[in-house]
C-alpha cells in the first residue's frame, strides 16, 4: 500500500487548518498521520489507487460533509470522496483531504413500496442482505464488497440488468451535497435536471449521501457459480456465449474471463461465471453445453440471491496494484478474435510475469433491459445492443505501472477496433458510445466520448451546479470557453 512511514501532512493542509476543520465538525473524526487508524484509512481495493491524505470519516448524513466542502473551497484544498474504495483511477484518493463515507452504511427497506434506501457509504453486500430478508432484490453489481455510490452514479450493470435495466434505471431518489454546500433531494419530481445528470455522471455533481432504489420480488433461489475450462475449449465456450445472448430474456447471464488462475499452474484458461434466476434443473439444462465440457472447476449451485454477488469475491480480493480499461463487443462474438486475445495474453504474461494475474473479461446480458430506455433519458450514454469488455490489470511492482497501463490501452483498442468493424459489417446505427465509464480506470477516454449525445446538456448542467469544477478530479465537464 502507499507509504505512510513519515508523519508529514499533505503540503496544502497545515496543522492549523486541520484544527480549524475539527472545530467546524459535529459528528466526524479527522485522521492525520499520527492518528490511530490512519494507515488503514488509506487502504483501497487497488494499491495503485492509494494516496497519502488527511482522512475524514463522516458519521452524519450531510451537515458535516457540507461544512467540509465549504471549508475545502475556502482554503483551496483538493478533496476526494471515498465510498467502497474500488476506484482504480484513484478518484477516491488524494494527497489533500478524503471525505470517507464508509461509516455511513445503514440500509432500510420499505416493504409496502418495495424500495430500499441506503446511505452513501454502504456496500452492495449490505443492500443485498437487507433486501433479501424481505424477499426482495435490487439491481446491483457483481461483487458485493463494492460500494453502492460509484457503481450507481456511473450507470451500473448487474445480474438483474437483463430483466430490470441498469442500476440508474432503478434509482428513485438521492439526497446529495452540492458544490456550494447545499443539501438537496433529486428525483423525477424534485430537481429533475440534476437527477438526470447524476444518473450516469453523478460523481461530477456532488456527494450523494443517500440512495433510494426500486426493489423487485426475488423470493426464489438462483443458480450460479464458476466453471473453469482450459484454453483449448475456447470455441465451444464462445459458441455458448453467443447462444446465451440470443436466448436470454433476462433470466440468465454470464461473465467470461481469460487468464491464468492458480489451478491451471500458469496456463491460460477461460473462467465462466454463470447465472440463472430459477431452479437448478432448468439452469443445468440451459448451461448443458458448458457443463458437458467437463469443467476443471465447477462451483455452481442454488443459493439465495443475497449470496450471488459474493460468488466471485475470491477472484477480486483487496491487495495488489490493479487498473481497468473498458471497451465493448457485439454478438455473435468471433471465436478467432478471442483466440487472438488468448495469444496476446500469453505473450504478455511471458514478457511480464509480475502481471500474470491480469485477465480479459466480457459479459453476456439481455441488452433489452437497458435498450428499452431512450439514450437521452439519463446522462448515461452507453445504451446499445452490445456487451461490455474489460481489461483487468493486476501486478505488484510499481516499476511496472507504465507497462501495465500501456498494455491495457493496447488491448482495449483491439476490442474497440473489432467493435467498430462489426458495427459496420452489421450496419448498426445507434448513439451508444461503446464504453462503460466505470470501466475506464485509466481515465483515457475524453468526456464527449463517454457521454456522447448527452454531453452538451450535461456540460450546461455542470455549469449550473458546479461552475467551479469542484467535483472534477477525473474530467472537466464544463463548456470549453
Q: Please outline the major beta sheet.
A: 8 strands, antiparallel
- Rg over CA atoms, rounded to whole Å, is 22 Å
Q: What percentage of the residues does DSSP assign to strands (E)?
A: 15-25%
Q: What is the number of helical segments per DSSP (H or I, 4+ residues)?
A: 16
Task: Compute the number of strand runs.
Answer: 19
The unreliable regions are 1-9
Overall shape: it is globular
Structural class: alpha+beta
Tell me the distance between the termini.
Answer: 40 Å
Indicate the mean pLDDT. 91
Helix content: 25-40%
Summarize the structure.
With 481 residues, the protein is an alpha+beta fold. α8 packs across α12.
Give the SSE map.
Layout: H1 15-24, E1 28-31, H2 38-41, E2 54-58, H3 63-74, E3 79-82, E4 97-100, E5 107-110, E6 115-119, H4 124-132, E7 136-137, H5 148-153, H6 161-164, E8 171-177, E9 183-187, H7 192-201, E10 207-214, E11 216-217, E12 222-230, H8 234-247, E13 252-259, E14 269-276, H9 280-286, H10 288-291, E15 297-298, E16 301-303, H11 305-308, E17 321-329, H12 335-351, E18 359-364, H13 368-371, E19 387-395, H14 401-425, H15 447-451, H16 455-465
Helix pairs in contact: 8-12
Explain how this protein is built:
The chain has about 475 residues and is α+β, with helices and mostly antiparallel strands. Helix content is about 30%, strand content about 20%. It has helices at about 15-25, 40, 65-75, 125-130, 150-155, 160-165, 190-200, 235-245, 280-285, 290, 305-310, 335-350, 370, 400-425, 445-450, 455-465; strands spanning about 30, 55-60, 80, 95-100, 105-110, 115-120, 135, 170-175, 185, 205-215, 215, 220-230, 250-260, 270-275, 295-300, 300-305, 320-330, 360-365, 385-395. Strands 12, 13, 14, 15, 16, 17, 18 and 19 form an eight-stranded antiparallel sheet that branches. Helix 8 packs across helix 12 (about 335-350). The longest helix has 25 residues, at about 400-425. The radius of gyration is 22 Å and the shape is globular. About 50% of the residues are buried.
